[in-house]
TrEMBL record:
InterPro entries: Knr4/Smi1-like_dom, Knr4/Smi1-like_sf. Gene3D superfamilies: SMI1/KNR4-like (3.40.1580.10). It comes from Chitinophaga fulva. SUPFAM superfamilies: SMI1/KNR4-like. This is SMI1/KNR4 family protein. Residues 5-130 form the Knr4/Smi1-like domain.
């Protein structure tokens, strides 16, 4: 039994099929996380980037830590909210599946802020989330906060990122992403227009409180 299967059984839910496919493909491992990760693991994984390695401000969660976060109530969330974390930002906010809005096979992904009682819906499902993060990666970098994709040759890293992630997109998303990656850059306006046209749904960008007032 895999770690994800153990988590599913323990907490009585089912991960999206695409997330389990990523796990089978070895995409959910960034190597040994911790203080020595950049020196020891990044050189090993960068040529075949695992899940969202080069995405802006995304760090994967250790699978061994997921069950504890779910059991304890992530970020002291009200138990009525069914969050299952998959990553976090450098500031300590969490990306999580949000099962309260599950619709068929679609489990939305939300960004849960650690320092305010707010969660924001980022995508209808994991496929749309990957698509959005792929495109967002090519927004012109702030030189004060360069992303991992700038470590080494940007064009090579971008090509590898698209190669390992494109297979998990829909054919139309693959076509759009390939076009943007061929250009090598996307503006914030272009990104907004594409996401509005391609992954919009009723809850996108909506927010809600997730903690009790006790």
């Amino acid at each position: 039994m895999t770690i994800l299967e153990t988590i599913e059984q323990e907490h009585q839910f089912e991960y999206p099929a695409l997330y389990k496919q990523l796990d089978r493909d070895g995409m959910l491992s960034w190597g040994k996380l911790g203080p020595g990760w950049y020196a020891n693991e990044f050189p090993r994984v960068k040529d075949n980037p695992p899940f969202l390695l080069f995405a802006n401000d995304f760090e994967i969660i250790n699978q061994e830590d997921i069950s504890g976060e779910v059991a304890e109530g992530m970020l002291f969330a009200d138990k009525s909210h069914r969050f299952v974390p998959l990553g976090y930002t450098g500031a300590g906010d969490w990306y999580a599946f949000y099962y309260n809005l599950k619709d068929g096979d679609n489990v939305p992904i939300v960004l849960v802020y650690h320092d305010s009682n707010e969660a924001v819906v980022m995508a209808k499902n994991l496929q749309d989330f990957i698509f959005a993060r792929l495109l967002e990666t090519l927004i012109e970098e702030d030189p004060e906060y360069p992303g991992l994709i700038t470590e080494g040759d940007l064009a090579t890293n971008a090509g590898n990122f698209l190669r390992t992630h494109g297979r998990y997109l829909s054919p139309r998303q693959q076509e759009i992403a390939a076009g943007i990656y061929a250009k090598g850059v996307i503006t914030e306006d272009e990104l907004r227009d594409i996401l509005e046209a391609e992954i919009n749904f009723d809850w996108l960008d909506s927010s809600f409180p997730y903690q009790t007032n006790d």
